[in-house]
Amino acid sequence: QVHLVESGGGQVQAGGSLRLSCTASGIIFRLNVMGWYRQAPGNQRELVATITSGGSTNYADSVKGRFTISRDNAENAVYLQMNSLKPEDTADYYCNLKVSGTGYVYWGQGTQVTVSS
User: Fold this and answer.
1) What is the distance between the alpha carbons of residues 78 and 36, in angstroms, rounded to a whole number?
2) Could you give the CA distance from residue 74 to residue 113 in angstroms, rounded to a whole number?
3) Tens digit of pLDDT per residue, the chain (117 long)?
4) DSSP letter string over 34-100?
5) Pairing mode of beta strands 111-116, 10-13
6) Measured between alpha carbons, how far is 29 from 76 in angstroms, rounded to an integer?
7) Is residue 55 a contact partner of residue 42, using CB atoms and an 8 Å limit?
8) CB 71: neighbour CB atoms within 10 A?
């Protein structure tokens, strides 16, 4: 079993920055993809960014150039640096871990990000 714990959410004005962190504990398979998804009220959960255990990244078009995902394999942690935040970035942000080559997917409880105009 894998347990994901997020931190770093909060409230910020438009143009500001936040850094989200997520730490995984439990049985961590070496090959995995970690990422961040978000869900705004009334919307479906959507991809923000992912990063493989080898460091390859993928971003949603809406956050390219503003958000940066990174990870520390030794700490089983993934981070999301969010700059130039916009009100439309307001959502609950969820950490995600997919074990490569299997169907196992794990989610964190979520952390709220609110961007005011």
Assistant:
1) 9
2) 27
3) 899 999 999 999 999 999 999 999 987 777 889 999 999 999 999 999 999 999 999 999 999 999 999 999 999 999 999 999 999 999 999 999 999 888 899 999 999 999 999
4) EEEEEE-TTS--EEEEEEETT--EEE-TTTTTTEEEEEEGGGTEEEEEE-S--GGG-EEEEEEEEET
5) parallel
6) 10
7) no
8) 21
